[in-house]
Predict the 3D structure of the following.
Amino acid sequence: MKITFSNLCSHAFHQVKISPDGQYIANAVANRLVIRRSGEELPVIHVFECSRSINYIQWSPNSECILTVNYEFSRIEVHSIMDPKWTAHVRDPSFPIALAQWTADSKSILCTAEMGSRLAIWNLSKKEQRYINSVKFRDKCIETSPDGKYIAVIHKRSGKDVLGIYHSASFISLQQFEVNTVDLDNMKWSPDSSCIAIWDNCLYHTLSVYRPDGYLCTTYNGYEHGLGIKTVNWSQDGKLLAIGNYDQTIHLLSTMSWDLITTLEHPSTLNNSTAHIQLFEETTFAKPQIPTLETVIACNDYIKQDIHVLNFYCHVDQIIVKRPFNLPSLRLDYNQPNPKVGIGVCQFSKDGNYLASRNGKLQAYSVISLSEKQDGIQMERIYYF
């Protein structure tokens, strides 16, 4: 496989986003929003000047508009790719913005306040706004179904966790039902939008799956004593459900029977018993240097690497074969809230054959082959993938 890299582009706050249709790439620098057309040259087609510095950007689902957020001044600006002269401004001084996202029809923007408790819906086409009260979180209370028909909202009413199902276009309440959690932490729709998984906070290892009409499909309790669930993700075909835990393990469930298939671990030490795990360390060569064949270590006959001389940077992955090998770990301060421990990211590949996960404690992420029982671990610390 040949890997090529583009020229370096400046950005701020890691705000570089590819449009959903793959035609454009947006990056934010200070108060400038740069739109490039995807391709080898990445030509700049638009540069939008915003009134404030940009902290966050997000493409609309139809790739025709992009929003920018400045959290300090609670200001949202929307720019159109099709009509660069058109722009929209959303600002409410009494509503400090904590989260902003598009609806599935690309006509409205959802915003939650810094102190939580209220969800604002700004309809750009009708120039209207409405509110939904009693939301539980400011940053994870909203989840749009993959088919774009429903929006699930987590409410807290009279000390009870309530899941609200709304129509995504009109925001009419379709269903409101209490869930069987002690302290609901988050939720995740299934790929076919037929059900939604919810789970408790870090003190309870409990996951429940509900249908949008409120019917309880199943409840999974990993163990009674121990840390709880940090993240959950479905495979693309909906047949597998991966549960990333605070104890640095992944529970893999079959959605056909809701039984535990296997438990995947993030080992901190690799020895001969973990020979199926491959270690990858990325080496970067600057302009004057050209990688040689000695910089590539081949592992078995089926692993081959191509060397290419690039006019900017060249990256070569090395496979470390030394065992035992201690993975570098981060020293966590457990006196601080929300320590970065456990499986924070857990994602399936499109075909469902691979599972990528990131352990917050280790400076590595793992790519696990579900069909061939092989693992790969990236050594460099990962900030985003």
Summary: The longest strand covers residues 277-285.
